[in-house]
Structures are given as C-alpha cells and as structure tokens.
C-alpha cells in the first residue's frame, strides 16, 4: 500500500480520528477557541452526509 | 417527547427557542441538505470524520483542564476497554447463537448479519414482527460481550469514584453538585416523583441505547459518569450512615434498574460497533438492529423502569426507614 492510500485509509478510520482528536485536544487545546464556533456547522455537516 | 424535553431543559436554563433553533439546525436543515449532498460524488466518510474530529477535538480541548485533573484515568481506562473489546470482537465475529440446523437469527459466523434479518420468514401480526421471549434471550446472549463490557466499566468507575471521593473530597463535592440540582423533585407529590424518576431514567436509557450510534460515545459517557457518581455518593453515604443504609437505599429498585440501564448501554455499544462496521464497508444490518433496540426499549426497558421508579418512590423509603 503506498503512502497516499495509507493516509486515505487512516482518514476514513473513525477510531483513529477519535484517538487523534482526543490526543490533540488534551495536548494542544489552544485552537479550540476558534473551533468552538464550528461545532454546530460540523454537526450539521455530519448529519447531512450521514 | 417535546413536553419531556421541555420539562427537563427548563430546569437547566436552556430556553425553548434555543432548543427549537438547534433542532432546526441539526435535523431539518441537514435532512433537506442531504438530498443535494447525496448527488455530490464524494465519499461521505471523509466529511463525517472531519466533523467528528472537530466536535471531539473541541469538546476535549474545552474540558482538558477537568480531564487532566481527575477524570482522565477513568476515560482512558474506559476507552481502552472499549477499543480492546472492539478489536477482539472485530477479529473474531460473533457466531450464531442458535443450534446448527435451526433458523439463525442475528448473526452468521462469517458476516455481520444482525438483528432483524431474524425477521425473514417470521410471523407478522398487524404488520409487526412477532418476537418470542426466546428470541429476545437469544439476542441478549448475542450481545453478551457488550453487556460484560458495560458491567465491567460501570463496576470499575464505581470503584474509582469511591476511592476518588476518599482521596479528594473537593472533587466529590463538585460531582454531587449535579445531584443538588435535582432536589426540586423531592418537593413534588409522590406520583409526580415516580413519573419524573421514570421519565428521567427512560430518557437516559433511550439516549444511551439509540445515541450509541455515535460510535458508542454516549453510552460510554453515561456508564462512566453514572458509575463514578454512584461511587462518590456511595462513599459519602457509607461515611455518614454505613453500608446497610447504602444497601437499603439502592438495592430495592437498583436490582431492577441497574441491569435494565446496563443492558440499554450494552445495546448502545452494539449499535456504535455496527456503525463502525458499516463505515468500514462491512456487512451489517444496522436498521434491523435499531428496530431491535426499539423493540427492547418498548417491551422491556420502559415497563421495568416504571416498576423500578414505583419501587424507588414507595418501597425504598420504607426500606431506609427500617434500617434507620
């Protein structure tokens, strides 16, 4: 599997995304002030695509 | 349901207009947008995961201080248990739980056929599928790993909560503040108290069960927070009045309520696991499983929680008065 496919499969892996977001949220919470306003649009995006 | 939501949200200071606004944003608009979005030639997993990342990152980031201070251990253990079990069950799919030769209900040994594939060829009454108690027991047996997982996490977080309260009383008082918000219930007449307890437990169980679709995060949150809270309250009660008082206050209704809630949580974990399988392009009858969850909610969870609420309102106080 080449690097591109490997990266794509990681981005589709929900468990990886969960762990990554938890790790980043705990280690680098700075940008949450920016992403705070994106929660509702993000949920809308998820609902629309799911 | 809107009335129930209004009753509980009005206690937390959330206005009805905000609730309507959020419902429109998160239900009506996405439902309308989904028609157009379905035509976009893009893998839906990517935007879903992007949204999932943003929401999880923000929620964790906003609460990282609290998480570092104490709950991180609980969350880490619970998450580790969840993923360890998911990996284990993922590598060895559930096998059929009926004897060979009989009709297989929920699972095939090789693919993740679930739940209401059980309905194929089954009798229908007034358009509804007829499930016997035997079928329901077979379903429970098929999700025994998730039941074990929810019991294990609940037990573990209860023990952690008990010792956390012993070590850090300030942490315990912060958690019990949440309970003080519910003191208004005690001022109501007994019948209303019973109905409020019933509706609150039913709402929590239904949420843990059906919102398990969010990859099992909500049931994980429900089981860890309830276990931790029980541990903290248990410690405070034991210190004040002893183990017998605690048993009298919990056992009469808890003997029904706890298994029902833990099974609801287990079904939630199961739905989350199946959603993960679906996202990974595995075959899984997610809609059938959701119908099975509804079936359990209506047939068992709601009546048993009603019984537990009646016991909690009318019998538990008698048990407490006997031991005091």
Characterization of the model:
The complex is a heterodimer of chains A (50) and B (324). With 50 residues, chain A is mostly helical. Chain A has one domain. Chain A has four helices and no strands. Chain B has one domain. By secondary structure, chain B is an all-alpha fold. Chain B has twelve helices and two strands, in the order H-H-H-H-E-E-H-H-H-H-H-H-H-H. A two-stranded antiparallel ribbon of chain B has the order 1-2. Classes of the chains: A mainly alpha (50), B mainly alpha (324). At the A-B interface, helix 2 and helix 4 of A face helix 2, helix 3 and helix 4 of B.
Please describe the topology of this protein.
The complex is a heterodimer of chains A (50) and B (324).
Chain A: H1 3-11, H2 14-27, H3 32-35, H4 39-49
Chain B: H1 2-12, H2 16-37, H3 45-62, H4 64-91, E1 124-125, E2 128-129, H5 133-142, H6 144-167, H7 169-180, H8 190-210, H9 217-241, H10 243-279, H11 286-314, H12 316-323
Antiparallel strand pairs in B: 1-2
Helix pairs in contact in B: 4-6, 6-7, 6-9, 6-10, 8-9, 8-10, 8-11, 9-10, 10-11, 10-12
């Amino acid at each position: 599997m080449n690097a591109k496919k490997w990266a794509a499969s990681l981005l589709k892996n929900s468990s990886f995304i969960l762990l990554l977001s938890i790790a980043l949220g705990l280690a680098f919470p700075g940008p949450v002030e920016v992403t705070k306003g994106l929660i509702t649009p993000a949920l809308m995006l998820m609902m629309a695509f799911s | 349901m809107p009335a129930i939501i209004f009753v509980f949200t009005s206690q937390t200071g959330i206005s009805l207009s905000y609730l309507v606004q959020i419902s429109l944003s998160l239900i009506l608009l996405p439902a309308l947008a989904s028609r157009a979005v379905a035509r976009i030639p893009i893998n839906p997993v990517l935007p879903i995961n992007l949204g999932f990342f943003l929401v999880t990152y923000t929620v964790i980031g906003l609460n990282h201080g609290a998480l570092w201070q104490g709950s991180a251990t609980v969350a880490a253990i619970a998450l580790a248990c969840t993923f360890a079990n998911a990996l284990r069950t993922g590598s060895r799919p559930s096998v059929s739980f009926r004897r060979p030769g009989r009709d297989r209900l929920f699972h095939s040994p090789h693919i993740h056929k679930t739940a209401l594939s059980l309905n194929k060829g089954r009798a229908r009454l007034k358009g509804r599928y007829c499930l016997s108690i035997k079928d329901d027991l077979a379903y429970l047996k098929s999700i025994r790993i998730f039941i074990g997982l929810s019991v294990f996490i609940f037990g573990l977080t209860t023990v952690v909560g008990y010792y956390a309260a012993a070590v850090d009383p300030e942490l315990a008082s912060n958690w019990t503040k949440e309970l003080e918000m519910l003191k208004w219930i005690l001022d109501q007449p007994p019948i209303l108290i019973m109905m409020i307890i019933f509706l609150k437990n039913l709402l929590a169980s239904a949420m843990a069960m059906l919102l398990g679709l969010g990859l099992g995060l909500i049931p994980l949150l429900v089981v860890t927070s309830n276990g931790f809270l029980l541990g903290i309250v248990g410690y405070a009660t034991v210190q004040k009045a002893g183990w017998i008082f605690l048993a009298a206050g919990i056992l009469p209704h808890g003997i029904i309520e706890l298994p029902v809630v833990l099974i609801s949580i287990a079904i939630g974990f199961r739905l989350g696991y199946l959603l993960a399988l679906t996202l990974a392009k595995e075959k899984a009858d997610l809609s059938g499983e959701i119908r099975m969850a509804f079936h359990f909610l209506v047939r068992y969870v709601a009546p048993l929680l009603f019984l537990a609420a009646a016991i909690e309102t009318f019998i538990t106080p008698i048990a407490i008065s006997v031991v005091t």
